[in-house]
Design a protein that fits this description.
Oligomer: single chain
Structural class: alpha/beta
């Protein structure tokens, strides 16, 4: 079966991808938004298409095999962001749900059970001009609570942790999504050379503070909007690139999203050493091999690249934020993204291109 227009059969419509699980069988149809399309080949040399399909409830992987020739012809014309109606059979790959696509076509306005608003993430309007296939990002955080106003047992936990690490309490809170908040999210297209890259930064001014004049590439938002923007971007990208993002950036964003009661629809944490959907350059370069410091600053120096840490570092973000200087924080954050992009492109060309899983 290779068509959605078979007049002799009716297929059940799954209104949301979240309704699917491992027990689902048979042919179904669903409306979805295309997040990613990639051509590939099986080990036997047969072509297939690798897709990511999503709605507001979920993002799932899908495959269009060569046997579904008409579906392949249609899928080859798809672009990220397009709304489609899909005929599929639920399948699994390494224990995760995967759709075996038998037919698909662009969704048509006004057809039954097609609700475009159900396919668009809450943060889409904030980022529809920023969607990229290779998303490089970095965040900056500051303390979000006054320890004098929290339960004594909670305050003691922070103090004890700070003493064990020989840190001050402010650093402890800045590094924890339970005591800190995201005040800057910088992002860029990883396939653009760093000196040509247009980095955009979402900043979160202090509530009630006067927002200074900011350049067009700096966009003031609330933390909730920043989080919604991030997950919309991550859901669209085929790969999200970070430096040490598995240990800090992603868990922090996940924690803050849960606190704001926002769904985390993109799994960027499960497999630490996978290259997609989250490429952590720190791990890809063997950062946990115990051979000494391997911060972004160190890597940039070793590779002969400019470092954003020459003028400012993360320990200074809270000070600038207290002064209301989100512009300087944005410039620093953007520098981290450019540096991460430069490292990514070196790793992509010198390492990843030779790996079968890339």
């Amino acid at each position: 079966m290779d068509s959605l227009s078979d007049a002799h059969r009716e297929y059940p419509l799954v209104t949301e991808l979240s309704a699917l699980d491992g027990s689902s069988t048979g042919l179904h149809t669903v409306f979805a938004v295309v997040r990613h399309v990639r051509k590939a080949q099986t080990r036997a040399g047969k072509p297939y298409l690798d897709l990511k399909l999503a709605d507001r409830s979920r993002t799932v992987a899908a495959k269009v095999w060569s046997e579904a020739s008409r579906a392949m012809q249609t899928a080859e014309q798809l672009r990220p962001g397009m709304h489609v109606k899909v005929l599929f059979e639920p399948d699994s790959f390494k224990g995760a749900l995967q759709l075996n696509v038998r037919g698909l076509r662009p969704a048509e306005e006004g057809e039954a059970n097609y609700y475009p608003e159900a396919l668009v993430d809450e943060g889409f309007a904030l980022v529809e001009d920023l969607l990229v296939d290779t998303l490089v990002f970095d965040i900056e955080t500051v303390p979000a609570v006054d320890l004098r106003k929290v339960p004594s047992t909670v305050a003691q936990a922070v103090t004890k942790y700070a003493d064990r690490q020989d840190w001050d309490e402010g650093k402890v809170m800045s590094l924890s999504p339970y005591f800190g908040k995201v005040v800057s999210l910088a992002l860029g297209d990883g396939e653009v050379p760093p000196d040509e890259q247009q980095v955009t930064v979402f900043v979160v001014p202090e509530e009630g503070a006067d927002v200074p004049d900011l350049p067009p590439w700096v966009r003031p938002v609330t933390e909730q909007q920043l989080l919604q923007a991030f997950w919309a971007l991550a859901g669209h990208a085929s790969v999200v690139v970070t430096y040490n993002g598995h240990s800090f950036d992603v868990p922090f964003l996940v924690g803050r999203s849960l606190i704001h009661d926002l769904p985390v629809r993109v799994d960027l944490q499960s497999n630490r050493f996978a290259l997609r959907p989250h490429l952590d350059l720190y791990l890809a370069m063997g950062g946990r091999n115990g051979r000494g410091p391997a911060s972004l600053d160190v890597i940039c120096w070793a590779l002969g690249m400019p470092s954003p840490k020459e003028v400012m570092d993360g320990s200074m973000v809270s000070t600038f934020y207290a002064k209301g200087d989100v512009g300087t924080i944005a410039e620093y954050n953007a520098g981290d993204v450019r540096a991460t992009t430069a490292v990514y492109q070196r790793v992509r060309d010198g390492l990843l291109r030779y790996r079968d899983d890339w």
